[in-house]
Amino acid sequence: MPVLKSPGKYSHNTSNSPPHSEALKAQTANSQHVKELKGQLAKPVKPRSTIILEFESRRILAHTSDRASINIKSSFISSAYPPCTVPLDKLRKAMIEDLRLETHNRGHYILLRTVTPTETMMAVTAIVEDEMGNVLTLQLYNQEKELAGPQGIEEGDAIVVKEPYVRVMADGNYGIRVDHLSDVNFVPKFHDLIPYSWREKVTEIDESPESWKEKGNKFFRQASYRAAIECYSKALEFDHPPGLGTTIECNRTLAFLNSGQFDAAILGVEKELSKPDPSIPSDKALFRKAQALYQLQRFSESCKTYKLLSERYPGSPLAQEELARASARLAEQNTGNYEFKKMLSETKERRPPCLDHATYIGPVAVKKTESHGNGLFTTAVVKAGDLLLCEKAFSYAIDHNYDPSTGLSPLSVSHPDRAFNGADAELIETITQKLHKNPSLLDSFLELHRGTYDAMNVQEVDGKPVVDTFLVEHIVDMNAFGSPISSRKSHISSRKGTPPPENENFQYLGIWPLASRMNHSCFNNACHSFIGDMMIIRATKDLAPNTEITAWYRSPFSSGASEKPVDLKPWGFGCDCIICQDIAQSTESILSTRKGYLEQLRSIFTSPRKPKARGIERLLSKVEETYSKPACEVPRLKQWIAYLLHAKDCAESNKPKEVVKFGLKALESLGYIIEGGNALRASDSENSLLVKTWGLMDDEVVSCWMMLARAYRLVAPALQARAVIYAKISYKICVGEDETFYKTYGQHSDRTDGLLPTARY
Ligand SMILES: C[S@@+](CC[C@H](N)C(=O)[O-])C[C@H]1O[C@@H](n2cnc3c(N)ncnc32)[C@H](O)[C@@H]1O
């Protein structure tokens, strides 16, 4: 049977997979005990030394156990909760024993200090103490994992947690769980909040901008950018000669750049450049600004800044090189001309395959639909195969801990009724951090569809962005796409009958904000494909301006003979396209009669001893009779597969006329209206064959056209070239590009579908 295209959108709930459901059950059992403790004060239940010892033993065990022995690690949370939106100076300070269990201690903050090294599995975790010496576990979710590394949190570092959520953990110990990045402040050792007993001795020499700059430089050399930024910021608080201030600002900008804080890097540079007489050479400042703009995909501004740099400082080879790179991105952004073959090679060189390319927005725009929120619409006439959008992922993740033998990841983030794992958790974490570091990106991300999640509308507190992790989670749930490393790879392997395991299609997960505006229709008019983290959307039909562009969240092609509407429950709606309506309106008896014929055909096609063609054709006609509407109005998905398989059989038995007849019928089943395909006259010209209306697209459509092309070569040679052109357009729609078409398909292949034996990814 044909292997059908992998699912499109991704909504992945793993709560029914055995290890996760076991973990969920265990948590439910524990929840009664936890309920009883809710609201009680977090008075220590074990001595400090025992809690530290238990944590240290677990930490050492985690380092020494091999990967195979890692169990599913789960993190349960009973319900989403909003981040703290109260400024720190409006909160009251609390000690551990003032906090209430299983409670979000609103109106309070707590100052803590780490007394152990950190450990990371689900969260960055350490034992922390308060000023009274009481200890508990601190779990920081969604933080950069580097925080647990040599450049991260050190023993003795101070941390403020706003409105701490105190939990009773699975081992009975108490812990503070922090899900929102803005609920945590890492407090520099020299900050006023730090009590004297916790302070490091500060000598006079420390209290100068030079010494803070030197400290900053030391941290910078160790790639401890958070600490370096703290020191540079402290240095800038002092009176300093302008030259020194500019150097410190410049160093801080580089630390911002290296830690992905591009907004802050641009701000720092602009402050420097706005000074009437910047005393340091501003080439560094301009260069860093151009780099930060590039990282934010603001290529036009990046090019302008590099140009300014080249004018002011001619002869800088690095600036010339970077200008060329930014100009190449700008050209992609403006024209949609990409070197797709090169991009495919790049996917082999990079892991994860995040490509250095720009987003092209073709003739499309976001607009309100009548009944399902926003949608994507054409803004001009479009032909089948035209590029509508080539979008770089906003964020892209891979499940690093994925275990192919079990199909599971040891990471799991769970709610009572659902579980995420691996790539989801990774993606949520990456996006949360990106937004936290670059608030200029917040607005456009938060505009994405969020389902029923109701979030507060505060975006800044204490001068820092507020990112609601649970809102990010909902947006990911509604908008993320699962993707293979490249659609060409999936296409070739499915043609060869070695489709990648289903999990490989979900191996990468990403958010493509504009593409995610597309609503679903089984009777779609656009297809998305991938080259690494670039998503390519092409029209599958000729479209008039102002047409809503629709794609598949799940493919309506299902294996087996049963017909039912696609399950779109994870997105909270049911499809009401004409295909789904037709299934809903068909009587049980019609559907079961059709199913019966299809089952007979299926067993014939899979049997080594085939009956006479006439018998098969009679059954095919009976299938046709079960449909009441013409295929050009309502595509017949099951009939398409049946005709296609028969056409393949005919091709294998060297019956070119029959291949033409049934290959065309197969395409017509998908809604294609094709003129001149059956004429088979010697007088025909290439132009006699014409697709008047395009139907549904699938990887198998490429095979069908190639099969037709081979048959035409024998019975109507004039039509062969046009059939190849249609195969090439279909290939372009399915894999995103047609530069590799002739490396993949050829008329001289010994396969009936023309796939070349040399075709490989
Ligand atoms: C990824 S979003 C698509 C864009 C969304 N309409 C918006 O306003 O941003 C997915 C959501 O769109 C809506 N949606 C998509 N296709 C739909 C359809 N065929 N019928 C009804 N609602 C649909 C559902 O609410 C779904 O959860």
UniProtKB/TrEMBL annotation:
Q: Looking at the Swiss-Prot or TrEMBL record, what is one Pfam family this protein matches?
A: SET
Transmembrane helix listed as a keyword: no
Stretches the record annotates as Disordered: 1-42
Swiss-Prot/TrEMBL TPR repeat ranges: 209-242
InterPro entries in the record: Gramillin-biosynth_MTr (IPR053209), SET_dom (IPR001214), SET_dom_sf (IPR046341), TPR-like_helical_dom_sf (IPR011990), TPR_rpt (IPR019734)
Specify whether Transmembrane helix is a keyword of the entry. no
Q: Which UniProt keywords apply?
A: TPR repeat
Q: Per the database record, which ranges form the SET domain?
A: 362-554
What PANTHER family does the database record attribute to this sequence?
Answer: TPR DOMAIN PROTEIN (AFU_ORTHOLOGUE AFUA_5G12710)
Protein name per Swiss-Prot or TrEMBL: SET domain-containing protein
